[in-house]
């Protein structure tokens, strides 16, 4: 990718504080006019342990990680082998390292990147009270042409009530770090002109925070939840923020309880949502099925992590696609959407909530660790809804209320407690229009038809996918791979087009056909081992004759250049 | 219970729906249905402000036989549904009902945690010491040596679950045992339970005439062992130590803090966005 | 279908005892040399309630229900509308009814079948102590040319210890019934020559019993279970029979407990199995995922019922296909097989258990209410395995034992407690060969590859499908629809071929390609609303260009003539 | 516990694996690991005949740190796995271990039913009154007004779960409270628990130094309140009425019938087929 961007990886073992450095750097860069992105990669320890802040900056919005890092700044080499695969370098990358932390290890050295020693430990020891991370911050800031003056205003916030002295020591560290940078030849640094400051306000937000914001924008006022990595931050954001809106979050005893509490609250008329990850979603399957059968809207955000089973809780993957789409027993039509980027988590969750409300069924939102726990500097995203509000019943005297009335668009107006004349019993048993259990084929069939119909008539407008370009090779990317795929499509210079699918279910046959018109080949891009999305597309869509699949299990993200290579390989194909 | 909307014209009958129960003739659950409708009539609750939530089982069919709002949920999850509803809609009077299998076997964890939360709702378990709906397997309250189920031909082999004891240990604030054969008494207990501001648990011994026909004889075994009510949890637990399983009455009642979600205010969504602005 | 068979439906409301009549008739017919099949259709009441015994007899093995009933014998008309759709009649069918039970209702009369009144009630009243069902039995037996003498030996068994007088009264009833039959003109009865008596012993068995037998044949000695309709009879059969083999069944507190108890027992080296239905399977999803990740074999039989959610517990459907195939979170390769008929439940379960043991992963067996709760007279089925036994580890001194060793065929020899030197910790977290948790991409990838590989190398030989014929239209039928599809294929006179897919997962790419060679069109046949199997086949196999789908939700079974009609329609297609 | 295979040469150290714990420095769980390995050494159990089963959480990581058979299962399901193993393999000594969230929140139902079944295994809960692994949320044993979790900024608002009380009410036959800071004592309790023929439950107060740093101070609060052991369940429950939550000791112990599956015999599969022959 030729665009003018800068990528930087900071690594260090527990206590080195690289996450703080990354965080301050991102903020400072943002104030200076940069867009940016920061992903965390953590070791298995509960506290401390090795970690990496994987960052990318640019003068235009940055929504995807690049291919390689321009700069790797290793505070030390603790357990670097665990990370090395996540730190691709080029021969013209720069590796900054502390000679006191040992030689550059083979896993890094073999990239042939230029290795530059910076005397971090020596500098720490040069004056009492200094901390390596502040020195590192001053040094790292230089890469972005940021000065101690850019960092200073942010320090107070980060140090909290640690006092004047701590602040002074930190500033001193930063200055010393900046000095170390100045001492290196200018050729050490990638070219990196400072962007113009933004006029419009920008946001600093994680995918998980954006998802929480989308929830309340969609009208969610009830959340029941059980914590699970990497989704917990959605819940932790929602708890106090829901309270500010007069809503509430209850911590449930498990996911069985949380999904069923949602159903109860939503039956009461209050839009309800929870967030979880694979293992939790597994436990919610039966409750989601009830939400389909009894037609009670609920929204579940699945921030995907490595699977199967407990898998890799702290690392990203897109392998819950199958369970989200096909996981419910019986014929159970529902909504599945995939957020395409960190900021997109907001409109996508918002849309999902209102789509669930409109269609009176569950919506599952697929996010992943890679989006959820990464922070980006963004322009405030556009809203993602609402599709429509929940259609409430206005029962009339004399005519008995039919909760599951067979309507043209499949949506049966719903009564909620408090509406006189609307008293009915919601049921997950097959039932007739009134809701009374029925084992008759005709009742079963007509209700199945109706539940299918309301999804077929759901208007997904332009929200169904991110489209770009019109080349003959259609790159169909899933969720968070949309932005890397966009970079690849742009780099393919007209050979490809992008379809970043947001609405997985209901199927978008017409829109897809239109988006594929003229395409002769397809490349399906997804982050899992068994090409789940690819098989889904084959099974449900009419695709051009040549279909290739680019898929890999997590945690190594599929990168733009890999996608571009696959596009080029397809181009070469007869 | 919440504010009473007076609807003086409704009789117990008006709280019954026209749906025919699937129950066997003679099933104890008919009487429980009667008692619920009588209690609602006595409390003059508007039909639209009451919801009966259940799980799956013979007993869990009860919501559709009432004319108030109802939810026939999934097996074992009645209490989470009921709690979600009550938290989201504190204005609604919420009753939760089901069987001993639904409540103490698959639903046992929710039972404990609902007792702890003490949310204002009434939980009625029709305890027939058997799985009726699936044709007669042992439930947690079945005797260890009951040999009538093909699934456990030598008996379940486990001592029976003690619902009242667990309820007290878990923190329930209103704990009752009743018998479906005494509808008046049951009605009174349901009224009191609905009025109690917190989680009320009523274990109703309700014979399954099909799979536990010997339960018909219980009408001579039940007695008013809990005629007096303790307001002290420890004292109530002491009294359970001498219980034969057939004492009826309000064993324990105490007004205790109920789970309340975070304090709320009334900001707009736009206010929340500010935290993200650089 | 022109073959010489006889189909008979007996209906009556609670207490009429039609099930007993059906049961005795099936037994008597079997002793007389008939093969036969009896399905039950029950009303929603817990006890009693209306019911129908749906029977079919033939001189060759009968494994599928036909298209219509030759004879409907209505003991009364109680709630007949609930059943009418399940009782297709032709204009040359015969309806026997009791005039005292009221006129022939419109839902029946509109078939234009010949309605013949038989004075059941009047006969009951003719002598004291008679019961209608015994009179009905005597009458119904006549349809099969069975006499009271054929019935008599079976009566004692059915009456149990009801005593001499009851027996005498029953015999008297049967004779009166036979007399009623004799009084009717011979033209009333379908042509039905008595078959020759069988020389080899035959079995009377239900699909659920056959499944239980298959389990113990597969080596299962531990079962943990939670009752659920329509699977409970498997468990009820297993409880005493496992005990006879020194095995055991434990009733768990719920399905979460039962699946996890299986995993524990199987970790201990004892082949383990449970049976459930859709809602229970939903709750087992997380445990099944662990079984994939930790590589512990377990088998789950899903006797499918109407879905979604609680659905129709007593009626058949094949709508759990998706959850069985795709329901686990993460990339979770496992085994899914579908039994093709009542007797096939035995070898299929047996095979599944041993395939799970061989591949150290979960196997899900798809059965359905239609097979599980129906009884058939069959030739003893051939065995279905074993594929191979579980490969146990023989750790050597000095070399550390690698539980998840990367082997060529993907199977890592497994240690179980008691094997010294094999001590390891099983884990659902991503792990290295030894089993130690790892977040590294390379470990994750190699273990995912390995788990996929062991399924790819699993030898399914001829077990993968039932094949018949070589016509240009390939009818791919799912599970219990294999036999109706076979009837249709035979009736299509060379136009079609049958592929009754037994092994759904792992994919059978090669075998399928061979089975499809020369086929130009495909008809996919399944019993669900959303054509789940059809989409699966499209997504995972290369099918001929023309693919048609014949699917319908339960409970009305897809019948041979419907399948034949779909074959003919495809034949007509350009 | 089953037959003891004498393996005189093993020390506690030999029951530790070479896997590095992910635990924070100072975590109470290190001491529990020590105590388990010491107990195994004291009992001279052959490594291949012992299995440690857990769920998910910091504490649940413990199996891999031992050198016996282990199973790091899924969250909340340690007890079903352990019970399945023990039923299928009565010859194996089964220990089950995990956290307060794993055991009392998501796993609460299995806890109750395992107590009832009284299968011969030892269940050690490292109670740190918090969810450590997911970075500090309230668990069932957390105080109602603990405000350190963002998930429940006003505190969980529910009175703490009482593990010993529930264990007794549910029928556990050997009930202990210990403190990770007293390794000797804990070792002794684990030895006794393994020797007890039935379900033994040990609540180990085990500080989470990261999310409940104030727990470090508990070493001065714990006391020998349960120094004497009741063999009478009612008496034990009475004693719990005065418990401050920090009494240590074997509260209750009684040899009671353990769940046994159906009586078994030794027929061949072919014998079973006869029932289907016409
Ligand atoms: C997840 C799940 N497992 C099992 C079942 C089957 N099932 C339906 S009702 C029931 C038990 C009912 O017993 P109880 O709650 O005591 O009610 P009763 O019928 O005795 O009134 C069971 C096991 C189910 N519907 N869902
Ligand atoms: C089904 C499921 N839900 C949630 C989680 C996330 N999770 C992992 S450990 C844990 C709680 C751990 O608390 P506890 O059992 O007390 O153990 P501790 O870490 O405190 O030792 C949770 C909620 C999970 N792994 N699986
Ligand atoms: S089976 Fe038992 S519990 Fe169910 S309806 Fe009949 S009598 Fe009542
Ligand atoms: S977070 Fe707490 S419980 Fe977990 S390892 Fe650290 S100190 Fe121990
Ligand atoms: Mg019951
Ligand atoms: Mg804990």
| Main β-sheet, spatial strand arrangement of chain B | 2-1-3-4-6-5-8-7
Approximate strand percentage of chain A: 15-25%
Q: State the CATH architecture of chain B.
A: 3-Layer(aba) Sandwich
Structural class of chain B comes to alpha/beta
CATH topology descriptor of the largest domain in chain A: Pyruvate-ferredoxin Oxidoreductase, domain 3
Structure commentary:
The complex is a heterotetramer, with two copies of chain A (574 residues) and two copies of chain B (278 residues). Chain A has helices at residues 18-31, 80-84, 106-109, 120-126, 132-143, 148-159, 164-183, 207-217, 232-244, 255-267, 278-293, 321-326, 345-359, 369-372, 441-456, 482-491, 509-516, 532-540, 560-572, and strands spanning 5-12, 35-42, 51-58, 69-74, 89-97, 114-117, 203-206, 222-225, 248-251, 272-276, 298-304, 335-338, 362-368, 375-378, 425-427, 465-468, 473-478, 496-501, 503-505, 521-526, 546-551. Chain A has 574 residues and is of the alpha/beta class. Chain A folds into three domains: 5-188, Pyruvate-ferredoxin oxidoreductase, PFOR, domain III (Pyruvate-ferredoxin Oxidoreductase, domain 3, 3-Layer(aba) Sandwich); 205-378, Thiamin diphosphate (ThDP)-binding fold, Pyr/PP domains (Rossmann fold, 3-Layer(aba) Sandwich), CATH 3.40.50.970; 464-572, 3-Layer(aba) Sandwich (Rossmann fold), CATH 3.40.50. In chain A, the strands form three sheets. In chain A, strands 6-5-4-1-3-2-14-7 form an eight-stranded mixed β-sheet. Chain B has a single domain (12-274), classed as Thiamin diphosphate (ThDP)-binding fold, Pyr/PP domains (Rossmann fold). Chain B has an eight-stranded mixed β-sheet, sandwiched between helices. The model of chain B has no long low-confidence stretch (mean pLDDT 95). Chain B is built from eight helices and eight strands; from the N terminus they run H-E-E-H-E-H-H-E-H-E-H-E-E-H-E-H. One iron/sulfur cluster binds next to loops of chain D.
């Amino acid at each position: 990718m030729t665009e003018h961007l800068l990528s930087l990886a900071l690594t260090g073992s527990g206590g080195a504080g690289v996450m703080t450095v990354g965080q301050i750097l991102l903020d400072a860069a943002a104030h200076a006019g940069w867009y940016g992105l920061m992903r965390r990669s953590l070791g298995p320890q509960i506290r401390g342990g090795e970690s990496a802040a994987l960052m990318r900056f640019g003068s235009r919005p940055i929504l995807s990680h690049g291919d390689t890092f321009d700069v790797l700044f290793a505070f030390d080499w603790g357990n670097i082998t665990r990370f090395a695969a996540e730190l691709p370098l080029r021969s013209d990358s720069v590796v900054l390292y502390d000679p006191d932390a040992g030689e550059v290890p083979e896993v890094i050295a073999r990239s042939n990147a230029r290795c530059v020693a910076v005397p971090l430990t020596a500098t720490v020891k040069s004056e009492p009270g200094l901390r390596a991370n502040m020195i590192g911050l001053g040094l790292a800031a230089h890469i972005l042409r940021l000065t101690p003056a850019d960092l200073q205003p942010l320090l107070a916030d980060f140090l909290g009530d640690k006092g004047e002295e701590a602040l002074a020591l930190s500033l001193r560290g930063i200055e010393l770090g900046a000095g170390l940078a100045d001492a290196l030849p200018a050729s050490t640094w990638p070219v990196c002109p400072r962007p113009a400051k933004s006029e419009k306000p920008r946001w600093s937000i994680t995918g998980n925070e954006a998802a929480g914001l989308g929830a309340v924008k969609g009208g969610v006022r009830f959340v029941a939840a059980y914590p699970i990595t990497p989704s917990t931050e959605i819940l932790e954001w929602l708890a106090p923020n829901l309270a500010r809106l007069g809503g509430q979050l209850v911590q449930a005893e498990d996911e069985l309880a949380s999904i069923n509490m949602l159903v109860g609250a939503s039956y009461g008329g209050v839009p309800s949502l929870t967030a979880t990850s694979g293992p939790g979603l597994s436990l919610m399957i039966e409750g989601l099925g009830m939400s389909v059968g009894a037609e009670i809207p609920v929204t579940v955000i699945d921030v995907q992590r490595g699977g199967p089973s407990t898998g890799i809780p702290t690392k990203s993957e897109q392998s819950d696609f199958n369970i989200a789409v096909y996981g419910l027993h019986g014929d159970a039509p529902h909504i599945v959407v995939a957020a395409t980027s960190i900021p997109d988590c907001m409109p996508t969750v918002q849309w999902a909530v209102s789509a669930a409300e409109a269609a009176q069924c569950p919506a599952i939102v697929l996010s992943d660790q890679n989006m959820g726990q990464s922070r980006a500097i963004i322009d405030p995203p556009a809203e993602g809804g609402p599709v429509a509000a929940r259609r409430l019943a206005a029962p009339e005297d004399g005519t008995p209320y039919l909760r599951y009335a067979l309507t043209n668009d499949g949506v049966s107006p719903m009564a909620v407690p408090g509406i006189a004349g609307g008293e009915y019993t919601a049921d997950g048993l097959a039932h007739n229009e009134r809701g009374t259990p029925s084992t008759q084929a005709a009742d079963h069939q007509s209700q199945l038809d109706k539940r299918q119909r309301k999804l077929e008539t759901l208007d997904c407008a332009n929200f169904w996918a991110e489209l770009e370009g019109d080349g003959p090779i259609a790159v169909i990317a899933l969720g968070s791979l949309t932005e890397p795929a966009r970079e690849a499509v742009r780099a393919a210079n007209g050979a490809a087009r992008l379809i970043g699918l947001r609405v997985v279910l209901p199927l978008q046959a017409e829109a897809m056909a239109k988006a594929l018109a003229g395409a002769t080949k397809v490349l399906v891009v997804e982050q899992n081992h068994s090409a789940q999305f690819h098989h889904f597309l084959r099974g449900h869509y009419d695709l051009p004759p040549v279909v290739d699949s680019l898929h890999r299990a997590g945690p190594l993200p599929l990168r733009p250049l890999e996608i571009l290579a696959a596009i080029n390989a397809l181009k070469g194909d007869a | 219970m919440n504010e009473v909307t007076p609807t003086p014209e409704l009789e117990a009958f008006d709280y019954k729906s026209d749906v025919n129960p699937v129950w066997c003739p003679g099933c104890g659950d008919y009487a429980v249905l009667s008692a619920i409708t009588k209690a609602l009539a006595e409390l003059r609750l508007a039909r639209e402000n009451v919801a009966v939530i259940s799980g799956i089982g013979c007993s869990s069919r009860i919501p559709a036989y009432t004319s108030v709002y109802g939810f026939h949920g999934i097996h074992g999850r009645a209490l989470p549904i009921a709690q979600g509803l009550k938290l989201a809609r504190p204005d609604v009077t919420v009753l939760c009902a089901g069987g001993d299998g639904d409540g103490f076997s698959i639903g046992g964890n929710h039972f404990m945690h609902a007792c702890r939360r003490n949310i204002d709702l009434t939980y009625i378990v029709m305890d027939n010491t058997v799985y009726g709906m699936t044709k007669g397997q042992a439930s947690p309250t079945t005797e260890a040596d009951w040999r009538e189920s093909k699934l456990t031909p030598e008996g379940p082999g486990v001592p029976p679950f003690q619902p009242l004891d667990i309820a007290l240990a878990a923190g329930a604030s209103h704990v009752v045992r009743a018998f479906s054969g005494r509808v008046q008494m049951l009605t009174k207990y349901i009224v009191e339970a609905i009025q109690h501001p917190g989680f009320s648990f009523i274990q109703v011994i309700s014979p399954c005439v099909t799979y536990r026909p010997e339960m018909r004889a219980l009408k001579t075994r039940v007695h008013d062992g809990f005629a007096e009510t303790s307001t002290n949890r420890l004292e109530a637990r002491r009294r359970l130590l001498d219980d034969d399983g057939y004492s009826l009455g309000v064993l324990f009642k105490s007004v205790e803090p109920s789970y309340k979600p975070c304090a709320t205010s009334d900001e707009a969504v736009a206010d929340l966005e500010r935290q993200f602005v650089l």
